[in-house]
Amino acid sequence: MEIVELNNLVKELHFAEQREILKILAEFSDFLRPYRDDLIISARMLSYIDFIWAKARFAVSINAGKPVISSDRELNLKNARHPLLERALAREGKPIVPLSLSLNKDKHILLISGPNAGGKSVCLKTVGLLQYMLQCGFLIPASESSELMLFDDIFIDIGDEQSLENDLSTYSSHLKNMRQILESAGKNSLVLIDEFGSGTEPTAGGAIAEAILEEIEKLGSFGVITTHYSNLKFFASSSKGVINGGMQFDVQNIMPLFKLETGTPGSSFAFELAKKMGLPDFIVKAAESKAGTEFVDMERHLRKIARNRKAWEERLAKIKSTDKTLENITDRYQKELSGIQQMKKQILEEAREEATSLLAEANKKIEATIKEIRESQAEKEKTKFARKDLSHFEQQVKSSAPAQDDDKVARKMEQLIKRKERREQRKSRSGTAVSTDTKPKPLTATKEELKVGDKVKVKGGDLIGEVIQMDAKQVSVAIGSVISKMSRTKLEKISGNEYSAIASKGSQKHFSVRESEDISRRRLEFKPSIDLRGERLEQALEKVTRFVDDAIMVGVSEIRILHGKGNGILREEIRKYLRTMWGVTKFRDEHIERGGSGITIVDFDN
Question: Is 82 exposed, middle or buried (0-12, 13-18, 19+ CB in 10 A)?
Fold first, then answer.
C-alpha cells in the first residue's frame, strides 16, 4: 500500500507537469498568434536560405563551377567528374580521369563502345547526373567553360528492371523503356541507354537496337548510349547524327585507361581479358575460331589503331620535348656566337691599334732612312719607290682580313635565325596532326606568348600593366585603375622584377595624373545607355566592348543596352558575350513597363 500511494503521487505530479507545459504553450501561442503570418514567411525564407547555403557548401566540397547555358543546341562537357566516384577514389588515394565530350545539333548522339569495366557506364552516368544537377540548380563538377543545354525530358534505361510481380524479364523491361522513349522523346530530350540491345539473342537484339537507334536519330534527341554490338558501331560510322566513341585501353598491360576518344569505336578486348583472367589458351583460340575471321579481324584492326595511337602520342610528346631542347640549345648557341663576335671585334680592334702604332714607328724609321739617303744624295727614283712600298704596306695593315671574318660570323648567325624560323613554321603547319581529340589543338605556346596574369609593358613607353583578359585580336590590360584594350603587337612581356623596378621609378604616378583628368572628363560626358537597334552583330559587339570599358573606367554601377526584341538574336549574342566580359556581375531584363526584354540592364562589381 505504501508503494501504491507513492506511485499515485508520482502520477499526479506527472499530470501536473503536463498541465503546466500545456498552460505555458497555450500562453506562448496566444503571444505569437498575432505574428503568425510573419513567422510562416520567416520560416520559409530561412529554409530557402538554408537550401541555397547547403548547395553552395556542396559545390565548394566538390570543386564545382557554373557552366554556360547554350542557346545553339550544344552540349560540351570539359573535364567533368562524377562527384560520388571522385570521393570514393579520393578515399583510396587514386586520381579520377576527367571526361570531355562534345555534341551538337548535327552530331547529337554519342555511341560509346569498349572493354568491360572500361568506364562506358561511368561516362553515361556522369553526363546524366551533371545534366540533372544543373537543371535542379546545382553547380556541377566540371570546367566553367563547359556548355550545356536545358532539356524538357531525360529518358534513362540503366540496369535491370525485371519483375516477377509485373511479369517482366530483363529484355522485356528494356523494350518497355524503349517504347516510352519512342512515344515521348523529341528534339529537346536527353536519352541515356546503357548496354543497348543486350538481354536477348545477339542477332535479333542488335537488329532491334539498330532500328530503335535510327528512329531516335530521326527524332533529333540528344543521347549517350553504350553498347558492345558491332552492327551499331557500323551504323554510327555512316550515320549523320550519331558519332562513335571508344574507351581507350592499354593493350600492352591489358588494363583500361578510362579515357573517352570520340570519332573511332572501341574494341571489347574480350579475348585479351579472357587470357588475363587465366582461361586456357586452347579455349581462347577455340573461341576466336568460333567468332569468325570477320569479327576477329575487326577487333585486331581496332587494337592496332589503339596501339598506333598510343605510339603516336608518345612520339609527339618526345618530339615536343626534343623541340624544346633544340630551341634552348639554339638560343644558347646564338648568345654564345654573339659573345664570340663581340670578343672578336674587340680583339681585332686592339690588333688594329697595335698595328697602327707599329706602323707609325716604322714610318719614323723610314723617314729617317730617306732623310739619310737624301743627305747622301741617293737617286730620286729609289726614294720614290721606297715611299710607294711603304704606302702599300700601310693600306694592307688597315684593310686586312677582319672584315671578311666578320662577314662569316654574321652569315652564320643569319643561318641560325633562319633555321629557327623554319622549325617554328613546320611546327605551326604540322599542328597536332596526331592529337588525341577530333579537333586539332595548337602546340604548346612559346615563351613570348601572353596569357592572363602576365606583366606587360607598352612598347615605346614606360607604361606597365597586367593582362586581365584576351581574345583573338586584342588584349585587355589593367594599367593602374584603368582597363585598356590594345593589340598584342604593342605589348611586350616583362618579368615581375622588371615590373617592380619600372613601377618604383614613379612612371605610373605621372600616368595616374593624366588618368584622373581623363576619367573626370569622360565621367561628365558618359551616358549610361546605348542604342544598338539596327546594328550588325559585329559592330554591335564592338560598341558593347567600348561601352562596358568606359562604364567600368568611370565607375558606374549599371548600364542599359537597348537592342530591341525582334527575333531575339541580337539580344542572345550580346548576353552571351557579356558572360565572358571582365567586371560584369550580372544582367537582366528591364521592367516590362520600361521596355522588358528589349533592354538589358548590366550590373558591375564596382
Answer: buried
CB neighbours (10 Å) of residue 107? 17
Residue (of 604, 540, 528, 595) closest to 573 by Cα position: 540
Cβ neighbors of 460 (< 8 A, separation 6 or more) are none
What range does the domain containing 256 cover? 68-284
| CA pair distance 43, 32, nearest whole angstrom | 14
Tell the burial category of 569 from Cβ atoms under 10 Å away from its Cβ (0-12, 13-18, 19+): exposed
Q: Where are the alpha helices (DSSP H) in 34-99?
A: 36-61, 83-91
Going by the DSSP 8-state scheme, the letter that residue 597 receives in this structure is G
Q: Do 79 and 188 have their domain in common?
A: yes
pLDDT tens string 120-156: 999 999 999 999 999 999 999 999 999 999 999 999 9
Task: Give CA–CA dist 448/493, Å, rounded.
Answer: 7
Smallest Cα–Cα separation from 104: which of 79, 68, 76, 127? Answer: 76
268: how many CB neighbours lie within 10 A of its CB? 18
Question: 247: which residues sit within 8 A by CB, 6+ positions away?
Answer: 112, 113, 114, 115, 118, 119, 120, 123, 256, 257, 258, 259, 260, 261, 266
Up-side HSE of residue 343: CA atoms within 13 Å toward CB?
A: 6
Task: List phi, psi (to 5°) of 244.
Answer: -75, 150
- Tell me: do 123 and 179 sit in the same domain: yes
Residues 509, 535, single domain; the answer is no
Are 191 and 223 contacting, i.e. CB atoms less than 8 angstroms apart? yes
| Helix or strand run (H / E) with residue 181 | helix 170-184
CA–CA distance, 90 with 310 (Å, rounded to integer): 27
Q: Confirm whether 245 is domain-assigned.
A: yes
The span from the CA of 587 to the CA of 52, in Å, is 20
The model's pLDDT over 403-457, given as tens digits with 9 standing for 90+, comes to: 455 555 555 556 556 666 666 666 565 554 434 443 433 333 334 577 878 888 8
One domain, residues 122 and 264: yes
What is the pTM assigned to this prediction? 0.48
Q: Is 382 exposed, middle or buried (0-12, 13-18, 19+ CB in 10 A)?
A: exposed
Helix axes 202-219, 230-238, angle to 10 degrees: 30
Three-state secondary structure string covering 94-148: CCCCCEEEEECCCCCEEEEECCCCCCHHHHHHHHHHHHHHHHCCCCECCCCCCEE
Residue pair 257/97 in contact by the 8 Å Cβ criterion? yes
Helix, strand counts (H, E) of the chain: 16, 19
CB 88 within 8 A of CB 120: no
Residues 147 and 73 occupy one common structural domain? yes
Residue closest to 186 by CA, chosen among 74, 101, 108? 108
Instruction: Give the pLDDT confidence score for residue 445 in this predicted structure.
Output: 36
Amino acid at 255: M
In contact, 464 and 507? CB cutoff 8 Å: yes
DSSP state of 265: P
Terminal CA-to-CA distance of the chain, rounded, Å?
83
Q: Please answer whether residues 122 and 235 qualify as being in contact, where contact means their C-beta atoms are separated by less than 8 angstroms.
A: no
Name beta bridge partners: 559: 602
Residues 6+ away with beta carbon under 8 Å from 579: 68
Beta strands in 334-421 (DSSP E): none
